[in-house]
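Reopening: Putative methyltransferase NSUN6 still failing for me.
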Amino acid sequence: MKAGDVVSIYSDIKGKCKKGAKEFDGTKIFLGNGISELSRREIFSGLPELKNSVDSSIIPKLTADGDVLKAMDTLVLVGVIRRRGSNGHQNLKRCVGSRGIGVRMTEPVYLSPSFDNVLPSYLFLQNLPSAVVAHVLNPQPGERTLDLCAAPGGKTTHIAALMQDQGEVIALDKISNKVEKIKQNALLLGLNSIRAFCFDGTKALKLDVVKDTEVFKDYILEI
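Support: Ran it again with your exact input. Result attached.
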């Protein structure tokens, strides 16, 4: 690999990419294509002397416990450093240190870093229309809310969070494995106010059908 080569960038989700490994046995996500700013020779032999000359205006944003992106074998810098001025390329080289590859992303898959599976007990990604729904509903703590088509649980968990997990959110979906996904997401986020049932939401107000659903009927008849 030479400086200027077009390279594809993947994120090693579970940190399985090890030096000397002949095969990759892990989970990876394609992040996009870019152009290598450094050759292999520069990476492995031309940079050690630069480790002590890191730009102080950049290093605070790229550190972990004092080491430059410690434990990362691939460094992806998305244009920001280059836009800092005419010396951006030199700053990029200084930041790489003796490990990693400086890549200028030209075809990113996402305009922002992927947050999928990042802090799963704290973050649940939704698209904008899904996120807006719960705010329009404006549920209050202590209320009982019915979500008729709830899987996989994005809006359901959002509603429960806005209610401060006080009250009840009744979540319905007619496919059983999707109901399990709702329960899993509620458990992952530590939400105890969600009650998920396998039920066709289009029949939720048909009393003859509801009465035949023992576990579920008391909830619907009270709403």
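Residues 176-188 form the longest helix (13 residues). If you still see a failure, please send the error message rather than a screenshot.
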